[in-house]
Write a structure and sequence with these properties.
alpha+beta, nine-stranded mixed β-sheet
């Protein structure tokens, strides 16, 4: 009897384990399918909202404004990073798990920090998910490699029909409460210089671009899984030719 009971219990545990594995596979499969759909939706946005008569790299079309709460379009040349940037005031995490239409999407949509004004803030902080399936801002992980940084050192942001070019300045691994996230506008020159000195000491990559008090920046932020509450930030500075 005892052996029979043990065998029965063992069989039950095996069945439960197999069910849990199947559930895990289904969950992962659903998550992957969701991410793929989100990527396709983004490509659809690019096709619809970027004038196809223009060159592929020309994203100065203002048609993206037709998307509610879309404040800009982000593009990094020669990568798959080409996304609408969302912002919903008084609901800072609204697009964390929503697509650009406001429907549920685990992948979410890249969004601008609620504190930022797309037209005037000195540092535009944009958040996006680091999806384990390689979509969304997971592509920023490639910036951990110096050679990749040098080959992809331009970032473009279209705001109100104007394409603004940013030069890659720094790449750093930080925590989610890092002091860099407090930098939205230049409060004073000493604080700015301290922030720049700080980020230079934290950087995996730092360019030889000169930065000065009053310059404008863009910061792309995503989760970085080698540390608890880790983040990877890609910092660009606005090119003088576009100021």
């Amino acid at each position: 009897m005892k052996k029979s009971s043990k065998k029965r219990l063992s069989n039950i545990l095996i069945i439960i384990s197999e069910i849990l594995v199947l559930i895990g596979i289904c969950v992962l499969g659903y998550g992957y399918a969701n991410s793929v759909k989100a990527e396709r939706d983004m490509q659809k946005f690019e096709y619809i909202y970027v004038d196809e008569k223009q060159d592929e790299d020309d994203i100065t079309s203002t048609a993206y404004k037709a998307i509610d709460n879309c404040v800009a379009w982000l593009k990094v040349p020669d990568t798959k990073i080409s996304y609408p940037i969302m912002q919903k005031k008084n609901s800072p995490l609204y697009y964390l798990h929503k697509d650009a239409y406001g429907n549920y999407s685990y992948s979410g949509t890249p969004f601008l920090d609620e504190r930022c004004d797309i037209n005037s803030s000195q540092n535009l902080i944009i958040y996006g998910h680091n999806m384990r399936d390689g979509t969304m801002f997971s592509r920023l992980m490639k910036y951990k490699d110096t050679s990749y940084c040098k080959a992809h050192d331009k970032l473009y942001l279209v705001v109100n029909g104007e394409k603004v070019e940013y030069q890659l300045y720094a790449v750093a691994k930080v925590n989610d409460d890092d002091i860099w996230y407090t930098f939205i506008d230049n409060e004073n020159e000493d604080m700015f210089n301290n922030l720049i000195s700080y980020i230079q000491t934290k950087s995996l990559y730092i360019s030889d671009t000169d930065v000065k008090y009053g310059d404008s920046f863009i910061t792309l932020s995503t989760c970085e899984y080698t540390r608890e509450n880790g983040r990877l930030i890609i910092i660009g500075t606005r090119s003088e030719s576009n100021v």
